[in-house]
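Quarterly update from the structural biology core.
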Amino acid sequence: MNVTFANPGVDYMLQQIILVQAEYESAYWTEPLYGFYPQLDKAYANSLSFTDRKSYIERTLRAAYDDLEDIIQEKVAAYSQHWANCREQITLALSDAFQVDCADILNDLRCNISMNPIQPRFLREHCFDIFYLNSEKGAIGVSIHEIIHFVWFSVWNQLFGDSYDEYERPSLKWILSEMVVESIMKDSRLSSINPYFPREQGGCIYTYFFDMKAGNALILDTLDKMYSSMPMGEFMKESYAYCQKHEEEIRRHIQKSEG
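Predicted structure, tokenized:
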């Protein structure tokens, strides 16, 4: 298992930023951009048509990239070195969690260091993005989260034989994969090198999962008990059945949280 960190270039970054700014996206996804880039006037941007807003964002952030390029290149080197220091213990921890030899899989992962504060991952392409303002420790914390997704769906696909098209937001399979990260991250070999763990440090999953309930029980508590008591394959089946049973409550909570 290996990750190559890279600067993908400003065109790629702008492409991913604009995707998140699509008109159908809620403020939960679109607003962070304006918080990190005060040179963008949110009120003015929102007064524009989508086409004009897209041009305004691209023009403004392309200029910002000129000042950030050297910093991003420095982050490539810093993240790469810290990954090399942590790679073995991450590989061993995930091998134990998933009952597979992770040393023999996912040797071609690529991490794009980006201006985009939203950090997507692309399962088929073995690629994920990290916001450039992460420290090297923060970058590893985010990387572990994303790598868990890659291993999770590799094992899941072998178990269920379904399609990778079913693994993206807003599918229930995507939601489950996001929730289980916290339980897997509790392994001390992972949590000790993730500055976003535990929750008091910000959390390693979407914060709106923390108070999500099914009936009177917190969903994360239920999933954690399952994870601690079952082999991974059984956990995947049982946790998904549980989410299917409570899908209406899960989606209602997410919709309310994302606005």
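The radius of gyration is 19 Å.
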